[in-house]
Each structure stands twice: as C-alpha cells, then as structure tokens.
Design goal:
Elements: H1 4-9, E1 14-18, E2 21-26, E3 29-35, E4 45-48, H2 56-67, E5 75-77, H3 83-86, H4 89-95, E6 100-103, H5 128-131, E7 147-149, E8 162-166, E9 175-179, E10 184-188, H6 199-204, H7 220-231, E11 237-240, E12 246-247, H8 248-260, H9 262-265, E13 279-281, E14 284-287, H10 295-319
Parallel strand pairs: 4-5, 5-6, 6-7, 10-11
Antiparallel strand pairs: 1-2, 2-3, 3-4, 8-9, 9-10, 11-12, 13-14
Helix pairs in contact: 2-4, 7-8
Keywords: Membrane, Transmembrane, Transmembrane helix
InterPro entries: Metallo-B-lactamas, NDM-1-like, RibonucZ/Hydroxyglut_hydro
Domain Metallo-beta-lactamase: 28-242
Length: 340
C-alpha cells in the first residue's frame, strides 16, 4: 500500500477542486480554471494565473477539455507575476488574442516591463527549492496594453460572486480571490499547502498549511498581516499556488495556527528580507536590503556541493562495478567478493 505522501504524489495533475473550479498542477505550481456559473462548464470562464514558461499548449488543452475547444477565457486574472505563475502569459495571449489580463495596480510594473522583482533569497534555507532559487527568473514581463488593473470595487472580471483581496507580502501587488458561495479561497502564494522550500515535500505533495515560499518573499510583516486577514474569511476550501487544495476544519485550524505563530512557523530566522523588507511602489522596486552572502561565494558553495554529490555518485558506482572476466583463462574468472 502506498504511504500518504506517495499517494499524494500520484494525485492527478488536473482535477476538479469544487464544482466550477479546476486545478492544474504545472510541475510544482498550480493554476486554476473558474467557471462564471459553476453549473455551466461550457459557458464563460476565467483562468487564474498562467503557470510556468512553455506550458501554454498544456494549459489550453485542459481548458478545451473542460470548457470546450472554441471557448477561450473571458479574462486571465493574476494572483501575482512571479515566473512560475506568469511564465506562459506571452504564449497564451498569442493563442487567445482577444483575452485581457488583470492584476493589482502594484503588480503592474512587473507585467509591463518597468521593474524586476527583488532578488530571490537562497539564504533562507529549508531545502533544494530555496537553495537553487538564485537561478529562478525574476525579470518582468511586458504585456503592453493587454494588461489592466483589477476593478477598484473588488469585483473579478468574468466571475460574478467572486471578489479579490489585496494580500501583499509575497509580492507588493499579490491578491487572493474569494467566492462567498461555498467559501472558496484561491490564495495564490499568500500561504501554501506544502513546504515550498523543500524539493522532497514538493515532490511528495506532503500536505500542510505553510507560509509563502520564503525564498521569494521580500516583506514578512505584510505577509503575516495577509495571512491573518485570510483567516477571517473562514474558508471552506483553500486552493493555493503550491500544494494540494485543502478543505474544512483541517484547513481552518491549520491556517489559524499559522496566523498565530507566523513568525515562528513561516518567517525565516535568517535571510536577506527576514528583518528588513524590500521597498516597492506603483513604479516597481525602490530598494532592497543587501544580500547576506556575496553572489560569488554563494555560487562557489553551490558548485562545490554539486561536484561533491557527483563525486559520491561516481565513487559509489565504481565500488559496485562487477569484476571483468579474466582474458587469460579459458573459463570465466570467479567473481571476487565486494569490498566495503
């Protein structure tokens, strides 16, 4: 029988969360397909986030599977514009030439080419996803006139019954989406349901309410306030940017526990932004604190770790290599015992 973690790792990558809402796990990040009317899947719908670079064909294929082949979304709405959530936007907008993109005004600099995000922070620790974050793209996307600010009244284009909430911290303009009917929360990376810094937890999809991915979060005070605000919604469903959606009492109790103990459970003890936030405004990033480790030292350390791991693998293979047949005998040489 599979363990809980192993069974979670085999969870389908594309599946319904609740009626009218589907999730696609794109390698390690989630994006969502929301029907305007939950009971009418062949009607209007909205895409929430856009996944990793190179995923546009997959995103469109699953949309056709649920909503019909000639039924593009009314809109694409963004929780935020990190590369794993916005990576396929350029390709999708070519496939859907009439579709507009909506994001919070403070997120627009990163979608209109005006500003890069603050640098990721590998020094927060927690696992391979964090340690390798210096390799992740942080450049802005330039969607030009295709991107618009979300409506000031809190409504969500194309999704009656939903509203957006500003939940900054992970990014300056991060938002979450909430539907009163069924108390469904699409939280982006305001919190997650997997320990996103760990490659092992990401692979097994070990389920737990966890803070935003630490390596990409530049304002921990704002992130703490955002989690506390989401607790007040008393959600029945928590669909996040990373991890399997959670439901009911387990979701609510773990989310409340995270809010109360946020600085202990989520905020890194060390890190570039752990005690000093990056500063951003409507034009983008204005200032960032200095890195804890210089890029050269960091690169050398990671390179050394990789070379050491490769050396261990090669040495292990050499030790276990079977003895060759002796060429000077008429019959095979007797194998020698392994030396440990």
């Amino acid at each position: 029988m599979l363990s809980n973690d192993a069974s979670r790792a085999t969870t389908p990558a594309f599946m319904p969360v609740v009626p009218g809402l589907h999730v696609l796990r794109d390698v390690f990040v989630n994006l969502y397909y929301a029907a305007a009317v939950p009971e009418q899947l062949l009607g209007p719908w909205v895409l929430i986030d856009a996944g990793l670079p190179g995923s546009a064909a997959k995103v469109k294929a699953h949309a056709a599977e649920v909503f019909g082949p000639a039924n593009p979304p009314i809109a694409i709405v963004m929780t935020h514009a990190h590369f794993d959530h916005a990576g396929s936007l350029d390709e999708l907008l070519k496939l859907w030439p009439e579709v507009a993109v909506y994001a919070h005004p403070l997120e627009l600099p990163y979608l209109t080419g005006r500003s890069s995000y603050p640098p990721p922070d590998p020094t927060v620790g927690g696992g391979l996803m964090a340690w390798s974050s210096f390799l992740y793209p942080k450049h802005p996307y330039d969607l030009g006139a295709r991107v618009h600010p979300l409506p000031e009244d809190g409504s969500v284009p194309g999704l009656p019954g939903w509203r957006w909430l500003h939940t900054p911290g992970h990014t300056p303009g991060h938002v979450s989406f909430f539907r009163e009917e069924g108390r469904v929360l699409v939280a982006g990376d305001a919190f997650t349901t997997v320990r996103g810094e760990s490659a092992i937890a990401t692979y097994t999809q070990h389920q737990e309410v966890h803070g935003p991915p630490a390596y990409f979060t530049p304002d921990w005070d704002a992130a703490r306030v955002s989690v506390a605000e989401l607790v007040t919604l008393v959600p029945e469903v928590g669909a996040t940017g990373h991890g399997i959606p959670m439901h009911g009492d387990t979701l609510r109790s773990e989310l409340a526990h995270l809010a109360v103990h946020f600085n202990t459970l989520a905020r890194p003890k060390i890190g570039r932004y752990a005690h000093q936030a990056a500063v951003a405004d409507a034009d983008g990033v204005r200032s960032v604190p200095p890195p804890l480790v210089s890029p050269l030292i960091k690169t050398l350390a990671i390179a050394g770790t990789v070379l050491a791991a490769v050396g261990l693998v090669l040495a292990s293979k050499k030790r276990r290599k079977k003895p060759r047949r002796a060429w000077y005998h008429d019959r095979p040489a007797r194998p020698r015992p392994y030396r440990h």
